[in-house]
Amino acid sequence: MVNELIINFIVAICIGAVMGLEREIAHQKQKINDFGGVRTFILIAIFGFALGYFSIKVLNSLAIFIIGFSCFMLLIVSAYIIIGMKTGRIGAASEITATIVFILCSIIAISIENKFRLAAIIITMIVASILALKDKLHKFAKHIKMSEVYAAIKMGIISAIILPFLPNKNYTLLDIPLINSLISSPKTIEFLSQIDAFNPFKIWLMVVFISGLSFLGYILVKSIGINKGIGVTSFLGGLVSSTAVTASLSEKSKEKKIIKPFAFGIVLASSIMFIRVIIEIAVVNKNLLPACERELI
Q: Which residues form the domain of 226?
């Protein structure tokens, strides 16, 4: 028990140190005096851990924890207002990060059997990565078009809204009212009743999966850029649409009057189609992979 408490305390300090170090480096690069650095975030981590442990584990009082957390939030809001009035800054990344550190360290202190320790570490790495990639994320967002935002919304709709509501049930052709009314033969009815024709959930899951691969390829193209060479562009573009890459490179070959590099790009983009198919087969039914291997050989 004591060893686990010490480990949790060390993890909490590491969380504060990682977050604080990222904030410290960012402030030094921007040459600004902002809320929190390495020492401040470590102290916040210790405070959150101590408050969570003594209020919940020792005193068994949720009220004390709420009061302590409220005081901490009051401090954070006051710091945001004062710094904003002095510097004119409107961003709240440091204050939000400090709140996350406090919550994570409190959860680690009060978690039963350390169930949330790994989750807290993962969240810390994600938050630190988002903070460190600030400039790249802003640059990425600057080049986003509204049509691409709509495409992302559509992707979210088909995957997060439509998919969960579809029945995960196998249906036969007899479940289609029109076909059921046209068939009168008992043998035919018995035969068709044994064949699972479709499953709405699995069919739509394939739509989400294939669309997701294309969407991922498109994001990679936008992130890396289209001017990184014909090879890279063709490879990533092939994940989205080899046909579109072929049409685009064909047009560019006419403009540049160069054939070989663009021909290589078209062949590469078309070859990615086989990789996409293998990935899809591996996810849907990996037992078919040996058959694919024999066909390729």
A: 146-296
